[in-house]
Design brief:
nine-stranded mixed β-sheet; binds zinc ion; Glucose Permease (Domain IIA); two-stranded antiparallel ribbon
Length: 225
């Protein structure tokens, strides 16, 4: 099974999740009120590429922000240890890059292929706005919420939204400039944990075999008494 890998070479969170506690306006957030959305700024002010986190297929393109919805082809292993199919929604790629990547409904990108890029379509400054949801993708991929953000606009959210920090696993080659204050799973840690559990499992199996053999011998002796 593929891991759901963080998809940029540099992690620099420029806007994190928006708090929402009853009131309509969250002054700690600019445009993410009540949403587990992230803005990713890449290495600098330029436009970094994004590389497919796993095998994905384009489900929808919405012109206003060049929003693109991608659905995973299969279950993927997420940072929280769960395997699930996901939908990703990314915003702000520029027109020429959308065209250059050949993004069209039905197109498949394999893990590691360039699939999106930072841009400023419908936004100020180059970045990628990211949201993650539980698959399957259905009708339009998102919905208008009853929450207004600081700009006075209603917040739209991907359906069945999930927190990116519980989904993406950071490869050891990712350079973290700003983690947004979230606890990200590093691929190395996970590998070490899995290796540790494997060797523990082997030891337990060996001990179990020894105990079963002893039990058999005891039974044999008991039968003879
Ligand atoms: Zn955003």
């Amino acid at each position: 099974m593929q891991k759901c890998k963080f998809f940029m070479e540099y992690m620099r969170v420029t806007q994190g999740y928006g708090r929402y506690e009853g009131g309509n306006v969250d002054y700690t957030s600019y445009s993410h009120t009540g949403s587990w959305a992230l803005d990713l700024g890449g290495r600098d002010m330029e436009k970094d590429w994004a590389y497919a986190p796993c095998d994905i297929q384009v489900k929808r393109i919405y012109g206003k922000y060049n929003a693109v919805w991608f659905e995973t082809l299969e279950n993927v292993l997420c940072a929280d240890g769960q395997a699930r199919k996901l939908v990703f929604m990314l915003l702000h790629i520029d027109d020429e890059d959308l065209k250059a990547l050949g993004i069209a409904v039905g197109k498949v990108f394999r893990q590691g292929e360039k699939f999106y890029r930072e841009g400023s379509a419908g936004a100020i400054g180059n970045h990628i706005h990211l949201e993650v949801g539980q698959a399957p993708f259905y009708p339009t991929g998102w919905q208008k919420t009853a929450v207004k953000d600081r700009t006075g606009a209603y917040v739209w959210k991907i359906n069945k939204q999930l927190k990116p920090d519980e989904i993406f696993i950071l490869g050891s080659d990712v350079i973290v400039m700003n983690d947004g204050g979230y606890h990200w799973m590093k691929e190395d840690n996970r590998d070490v944990t899995i290796d540790g559990l494997r060797s523990e499992n082997t030891q337990l199996r060996e001990r179990n075999t020894l105990l079963e053999n002893s039990l058999k011998r005891i039974k044999d002796i008991a039968d003879k008494l």
